[in-house]
Each structure stands twice: as structure tokens, then as C-alpha cells.
Design goal:
Helix content of chain A: 25-40%
Number of helices of chain A: 12
Radius of gyration of chain A: 18 Å
Structural class of chain B: alpha/beta
Oligomer: heterodimer
Distance between the termini of chain B: 54 Å
Distance between the termini of chain A: 29 Å
Largest sheet of chain B: 7 strands, mixed
Strand content of chain B: 15-25%
């Protein structure tokens, strides 16, 4: 991995245990800082600190919620017209700005095959405004707007939606597997057109776990099959290690191992857990058809 | 001598195509727009220029107006001269970005082909959509005819990109009345426009330096930045006047700066208008002058920065000002009236000013309408009748609102 220390500086405003700086370190090292980051309203708008200082030593454009992909498209076209094609344009957006309010502009940029990389760091709720449910919150999870029943709807699968746009590159990643994320970014950087990566990013504050456990929780999601790592290119899917090994050897840990690490699932009942097993298996069977 | 010695090009084109030609002459690099009536033929014409290879620009075909202005922001912030155009609901949908753009101090140009706001659905023009953006930090000009459309669009790049300004500029033109109606227009030569505008200038670019734009900051810094916008607006008045002079010298057309005056030098009664109906109002002035009434017209060319000094001057020796607004701030007044009243609030000798709301939803107002209203209000005033300052002209009647 490259030298992220030049780009992600100490002294940011992240909560203890926040996955965002982990992800940004990978992004900055994979691009060696040669990228313009577009960040819509999300936790990162706060995490990078208050002007005139910034914890990100890269060009950053903060934008209002719904339009990060559109701004990135505009930057890309300006770079083309100005013969500055060595710079990458990367959107770094939360699940709210991606799966919900930003969905139309995301879809528009994908349909245009705009030459940008879109990274959705998925902390599975609106964490910046205080843990309200998003369409990317998983079923059964407690949030401040699903306070008694937990979320009663399924998690929207944005990566699947992006596959349907037939863009050149779609992948999932996890902050527990930085080398896998790094390698995916490196491959994505070599491809032209619209590239999408969904980065699973557990939030200690919103998910109710100890700040020291961020990486363990992210790892447990993969080990229990609640988060599958894969790459999708040219109509073909490939499971990434370690998801590939777990699927081939049916080696998943019990889903309870993932749930019990987090306070947000403390209200989930046994029936619902059974459904989660069934949903996980259906999900894997769906992906297998694309192999 | 900057002007080409060649003969100038004359064409008969619509206001919308006048916008498109002016954008082409200004060598814009990135365009993004979403079709909406009555703006659509601007982006269609520009697409044609680009696909024919007559304009070396990228057109980003976005899925909404919100994204159109966002994409233009991305292009502008990365150092490209950029452009968009919209109307009515499209402009309202952009409104978040209208604010965001000016507060980042990034120049761009947007044409607003004005159209009333629904419901009910109505595609005819008034000034409601345009004037609704009044407080967002854009320099805002409004054209009277298609020639002025060309001239304002070209000048907008020069004004917005001036280092003492660095603000986005929008140009209003009424849908159908100008946008869809063809008139003879003189187009400057592209090389002359290139010399007049020079290279793109902007305060910073994310493609050229490690700069972080728009991040969280303190209340104090936020307020200071807004004070800077206000100061830039005030400075832009001088730039607008200078650019009008320079353009007049080079291209043969100058308009008077932030306002344009018609027979108002010795006028005891001054009408105020903005946009295409100013031509009808001028005819009305001629009709009344023939009847021996000393009336003149001040046409508002720039709503922001507001030409307070010019207004004050025009009303300094007048008895009465009659302000025609083609939009209304419901529960208040017409917005031009509010601004004109504010401009003279501290004047020692105050003229009486009245507000006439008219032409909303695209209702046609003719020269005879203007002459009737002005004639009636002036004779009432001279007879010493008490005048309401809140009037609405509808179906040939002047009523209180």
C-alpha cells in the first residue's frame, strides 16, 4: 500500500472507532493523492474537520446531499477539456446520500457511464443526523426512527442496482479487509467509465458496539455471510477472498455471532433471525447465478 | 482595434437561439441542462453546435435540473467556463444549487427563460421564477430584446469572472415573448469575443491545487464570507458599468449600465419596468408625451446588484414613480417596488411611489394598457386624489391588492 500518511492527517473530528478514516487511508494510498474527492453531506463532512484546516490533504469538494455524482461528472468533463486526465474523480458518499436522496443522480451518472469512481461507505443508517434509518439499514435493526420494532423493511441492495446499469465495474468491500479494498480500487482506477464500490463500514455509535471493535464487527459481517465480498465485471461475478472460501466450503459462522456484537440487534426475535439465515442463503444463490 | 474589420454577421433568430449563439461565441467548455419548456431550444441548439463540431464543449445530459447546476458547478470548480439554462420549475428545483454556487464564489452563467410557477400548469411568462432567486447571491440581469440577450450573455462571463467580483450571473428573458420569437440580431465575431473575454478566470480550482471547498466552518467565518459576497456585489456595479462602456466601444451597443433610461431626464413621472414589456411601456411613454405629459421610463437591467443610486437619481426631481412588477411577494408587494422603495427611503425629497402588479401568468399587457394605467394614475395624482400604493391591473381595470 502507498503512503496514506501524506494525505490523511492526524487530528480529524471522527468519533472513536470510526471506519471512515480507515477507508479514506485506503483511497488516498491507492490513488497516491491524485484524485479529487467529492463528498456530499454525510459524516465525512464533519470528520475531515473545520475550515480553514482539513484532515484530508487532497482536493476536496463538499456538496449538498443529492448531487455528488453530478458534480463529479462535471469535474470529469472539465478535466477532459483541460487535458488534465491524470486526476481521478472519486465520490465518497454515505448510504443516505447514495441509496436514498442521491439515487437519481447516481443512476444518471451510471447511465451516462461518466468516468468517475463512486464509493458508497455503508454504515447502514443516517449517522450524521443521529442514527435514523436509511433504505440501507438492515431488517431488524434498531434506529432512532425505528425505536420499538426495529426496521421492518429489507436493506436496499445498491450494488445490485448498479449492476443493472451495466457499468464497467461494481464491487463490494469491507473496512476489515483493507488489502482487498485497495486491490479493488487499484483495478477500478485502471478502468474507464463508471465504477461503483460499496464499502461496508460499521459505526460504533449507531450500531451500539465498543469503539475498539469496529474491525471485528466488519469482519464478523463477512464471516457470517451477512456481507459478501465480490467483483462484477463484463456481466460476470467473482466472489472475493475470503467470501469465496466461506461460500465454497459452507464455512460461515452463525449469524448470531455478528448480531450479538451489536446493540442495534438486541430487539431482534428468534423468528426474524431464522429469516435472516434464509435471506443470506437466497442472496448467495442469486449471486452464484452470475458466476 | 479589436473588432474584426469584416462585416458583422446579422441573423434573424429567437431569443433562445440568441442565448445559444452567445454561449458558442463565448467558447464555453462544459454545458449541462435538462429540457423544460420554454428553455428547451437553447440546449437543443447547443447540442447541435457540439455534435456538428462547431463548439468544442462537453454537454452533460443529466437527469434533472438539480443535477444540471450541480454538474456545471463541478465543471466550473475544476476550471472550465460553463453554462446552463432553465425555466420555472426547473429553476426552483435547482434552487439549493443556486445558493451553493454563489456562496462558493465560482463564476458561471445561466439563462433563465422565464415562465410562471404552477399550479395551475401554465407555460406563459412572468417574472416569478426569476425574481424568486433574488436573495441567492447571483448577479441578475434581464433582457428587453434578443439583441440584448446576446450582449448580456457575453458580458455575463466578463462580469462574473472579474477578480473583484467572482460571482455567478443569470440572465432573464421571457419565454415565448423573446425566447420563442425571432428578431434580427447582430452577432459579434468569435475572435473578437475571445479577445474581449480573455481566458477563464476564477479564484481557485480543485484541478490545479490542493484546496478543500465548502467544508464545515465557524459561524464567524461563515458570516465573514457572506459579508464578502455583499462587498463583491457592491463592487460589481462599477464592473457592470465599465463592461457596458467597453462593450459599447468595441461592439457598438451600450445600454446605460444597471438601468436604461427612456425620456426620463426631465420626467416628472417615472415608470419602472423590467423585461420585454419595457418596449410596450416605451410606446406608452411616447403616447403620453404627445399628450403633453412629462413621463419617462427607467428600465431595470440588473436586479442584483440593485441599482439604488440610479433609482434615487431618477426619482430625485420626479413627483411620482409608478413601478410595474410582473411578480409579487404574496402578502407584501411586487419585488421591484420593495427594492425601489428601499432605495429612496433615506432621500430628503421623496417622490410618491405606487406599485402596479400586472401580467402575471403571462397575461398580455399592451402599450395601450400601459398608457391607460399611467394616464389614469398621473391624472389622479395631479387632481390630488388619494392613491393606493398597492394596485393590480387586470382585465383593463386598476384595483387595489
Amino acid at each position: 500500500m502507498g503512503n496514506y500518511k501524506k494525505y490523511v492527517l492526524p487530528g480529524d473530528a471522527a468519533c472513536p472507532g470510526c471506519p471512515i478514516p480507515i477507508g479514506l487511508k485506503v483511497v488516498s494510498s491507492a490513488t497516491d493523492g491524485k484524485a479529487i474527492l467529492v463528498i456530499p453531506a454525510c459524516c465525512t463532512s464533519v470528520v475531515v474537520g473545520s475550515a480553514p484546516k482539513s484532515s484530508l490533504n487532497m482536493p476536496v469538494v463538499h456538496v449538498p446531499f443529492a448531487s455528488a455524482a453530478s458534480v463529479a461528472s462535471g469535474i470529469r468533463e472539465a478535466l477532459l477539456k483541460r487535458n488534465k486526465e491524470d486526476m481521478s474523480v472519486i465520490v465518497w458518499a454515505g448510504d443516505g446520500g447514495t441509496a436514498d436522496i442521491g439515487m437519481a443522480s447516481l443512476s444518471g451518472a451510471a447511465e451516462r457511464n461518466s468516468d468517475i469512481i463512486y464509493i458508497m461507505y455503508d454504515n447502514e443508517a443516517y449517522m450524521n443526523t443521529g442514527i435514523q434509518r436509511s433504505s440501507s439499514t438492515p431488517e431488524g435493526a434498531w434506529t432512532t426512527t425505528t425505536p420499538i420494532l426495529g426496521k421492518t423493511e429489507q436493506k436496499k441492495d445498491v450494488a445490485k442496482i448498479m449492476m443493472s446499469h451495466n457499468v464497467p465495474y461494481v464491487a463490494t468491500a469491507s473496512i476489515a479487509y483493507p488489502h482487498d479494498f485497495y486491490n479493488k480500487l487499484t483495478r477500478a482506477l485502471k478502468i474507464k467509465g463508471f465504477r461503483f464500490i460499496q464499502l461496508h463500514s460499521p459505526c460504533p455509535v449507531g450500531w451500539r458496539f465498543d469503539a475498539s471493535l469496529t474491525v471485528d464487527v466488519a469482519k464478523a459481517a463477512v464471516e457470517t455471510g451477512m456481507w459478501i465480498l465480490y467483483e462484477y465485471r463484463d456481466g460476470k461475478l467473482e466472489f472475493s477472498n475470503p467470501s469465496k472460501y466461506l461460500i465454497e466450503h459452507n464455512g460461515f459462522k452463525p449469524i448470531e455471532d455478528y448480531l450479538k456484537l451489536q446493540g442495534r440487534f438486541s430487539i431482534i426475535g428468534r423468528e426474524r433471525i431464522k429469516e435472516l439465515y434464509a435471506e443470506r442463503d437466497r442472496n448467495i444463490e442469486w449471486f452464484k447465478k452470475l458466476l | 482595434m479589436l473588432l474584426s474589420e469584416k462585416k458583422k454577421e446579422k441573423m434573424v433568430i429567437t431569443g433562445n437561439h440568441a442565448v445559444a449563439y452567445a454561449v458558442k461565441l463565448s467558447r464555453v467548455k462544459v454545458i449541462s441542462a435538462y429540457p423544460i419548456t420554454p428553455q428547451t431550444s437553447i440546449v437543443e441548439k447547443l447540442s447541435e453546435f457540439v455534435e456538428k463540431g462547431e463548439l468544442d464543449a462537453s454537454i452533460i445530459k443529466v437527469e434533472s435540473e438539480h443535477s444540471a447546476l450541480a454538474a456545471v458547478y463541478g465543471a466550473a470548480i475544476a476550471g472550465a467556463r460553463s453554462f446552463t439554462a432553465t425555466s420555472s420549475h426547473g429553476l426552483l428545483y435547482m434552487h439549493e444549487w443556486v445558493h451553493w454556487f454563489s456562496r462558493a464564489r465560482i463564476p458561471t452563467v445561466m439563462a433563465v427563460v422565464t415562465r410562471t410557477i404552477g399550479p395551475p400548469w401554465n407555460i406563459w411568462p412572468d417574472h416569478s421564477d426569476f425574481i424568486d432567486q433574488r436573495d441567492a447571491g447571483w448577479i441578475m440581469s434581464f433582457a428587453m430584446d434578443n439583441q440584448e440577450v446576446v450582449d448580456l450573455v457575453i458580458q455575463a462571463f466578463k462580469i462574473g469572472e472579474d477578480p473583484s467580483v467572482y460571482l455567478p450571473v443569470m440572465i432573464g428573458l421571457e419565454g415565448f415573448i423573446l425566447g420563442g420569437t425571432a428578431m434580427p440580431v447582430e452577432l459579434p465575431f468569435e475572435e473578437d469575443v475571445a479577445k474581449f473575454l480573455g481566458e477563464r478566470r476564477q479564484p481557485y480550482s480543485v484541478a490545479d491545487s490542493v484546496v478543500s471547498v465548502g467544508n464545515l466552518t465557524s459561524p464567524e467565518d461563515t458570516e465573514l464570507m457572506q459579508m464578502d459576497i455583499q462587498a463583491a456585489m457592491e463592487r460589481s456595479k462599477e464592473i457592470i458599468r465599465k463592461v457596458d462602456e467597453e462593450y459599447g466601444r468595441l461592439f457598438g451597443r451600450k445600454y446605460g449600465g444597471l438601468t436604461s433610461c427612456y425620456r426620463c431626464e426631465d420626467a416628472k413621472y417615472v415608470a419602472f419596468t423590467m423585461g420585454a414589456w419595457s418596449g410596450d411601456a416605451m410606446e406608452a411613454v411616447d403616447i403620453l408625451r404627445n399628450q403633453g405629459i412629462d413621463v419617462g421610463l427607467v428600465r431595470i437591467r440588473y436586479v442584483r446588484p440593485f441599482p439604488s443610486e440610479e433609482i434615487k437619481q431618477a426619482l430625485s426631481s420626479a413627483r411620482m414613480g409608478i413601478v410595474f412588477d410582473r411578480s409579487i411577494s404574496f402578502g407584501g408587494y411586487g419585488q421591484l417596488f420593495e427594492d425601489i422603495a428601499s432605495a429612496i427611503v433615506n432621500a430628503r425629497e421623496k417622490a410618491t411611489i405606487v406599485n402596479v402588479i400586472a401580467g402575471l401568468g403571462g397575461v398580455n399587457i399592451t402599450a395601450e394598457d400601459f398608457a391607460n394605467v399611467l394616464g389614469k394614475l398621473i391624472s389622479d395624482f395631479e387632481e390630488g386624489k388619494e392613491l393606493s400604493h398597492k394596485l393590480w391591473y387586470h382585465s383593463g381595470e386598476v384595483m387595489k391588492y
